[in-house]
Amino acid sequence: MSPVSLRRWGWIHKWSSLVCTIFMLLLCLTGLPLIYHHEIGHLLGNEVEPPVLSQPTPPGNVDAVIASAKELYPTKKPMFISQEADVPEIWHVTLADHMHDHDYKPIAVDARTTKVIVEPAFEGGVFMSTMLALHVDLFMGLAGKLFLGFMALLLLVAIVSGAVLYSPFMRKLDFGTVRKERSSRLKWLDMHNLLGIVTLTWLFVVGGTGMINTWADLMYKYYQHNELSSILAQYKDKAPMPHTASVHDAIEKAKEKLPGMRVAFVAFPGTDFSSAHHYGIFMNGSEPFSSRMYQPVLVDAHTGELTDAPQLPWYLKALLVSQPLHFGDYGGQWMKFLWALLDIATIVILVTGLYLWVKRGKTANATAKAAALDKTTGAPVLAREGGA
Amino acid sequence: MIRTPMQIWGAPIVLAILTTVGLISALLGDGIWDALSAVTLGIPCLIGAWYCLRRRPAARGQDCAQG
Question: B9: nearest CA in chain A?
């Protein structure tokens, strides 16, 4: 690599990472508890458990489930009802005034007795909801999401440029060399390079899928205004009708249409996942992959007739695949543990990177000069300095 | 001695392949697929921790904070 292009890559690496470092540190620190949000929820007592019934009871009527929840807040409307795959005893009902109501009410209802179990802690309690908000949008809604998405883009640039710089720095070093006996700067530089190259693929995937996730709201809107509205062209000029059709029967229709799949959630008219005239019944499979691939079934909320079961467009499928790859929640406890380790390794990379910039000093005044080449060997000064 | 590109990139490429296999395999199924994922994702973690924390004979023995 020529000295000029080395200096350019050094400049790219320095600035892309300096700008995003502080936000990436925040994302790593808040992401750590989010990996274990179920466990922390159990520990804090914020996770809802289905009551133990004296005898096995079959699932009750879903309309009765919704009615029980609405009794608590008669003025609010159902937005979503959902069920976790491994807890079919509970329906999570979300009531709100409208789609973007910040004062929405999550209510857990027993799917068998149709009685309200509890009104769970809002978004898993103060601690977890704060972690989530800091991780997702910095309390700033869509603007915050898109900002963090841009920071993620800078991270990807930093990863690529870092990988480009790895090669000239390693010309005289064996893989995994950490020169602890020289200066502490050299030790942290080697550690930064080592952990950077070891976590490269993982961090690129988690950063990239995180960036895609920041566009989720935009994708839902786009879906609603394009694919969904063309599927529902016949409803275009229709006056809003009362949503009197049974949700329970709508779910049964959806199950008939897609045998073998289960209901993950139902989106009510007026949400981003449905139309003004439909219950959007989102079905999924039970395999790790098929459980991510939701298949919507649209049922007319007035007549109760099945309208369509359209395939999701490619960009929503891409979003759905990208989510587990970001969360690390699809491979059991070992994966969560490794996700946490890799997250901590990323924190070390960020902190050492910052340290290397602060302590850039005379021998290596910024990465650009650090990368200046030795004329005789073509090796970077820092590699030579260590002597390996 | 100047390392050849293969000497420089051999280990990183193997680790990248292992990580990719680990990320994808757990998506494909449970049980054995999750175990494969744990092993293939675990190797890069172990290697990172090993080289960070090991004390070389000549070294004064400073450890890094975390692997």
Answer: A167
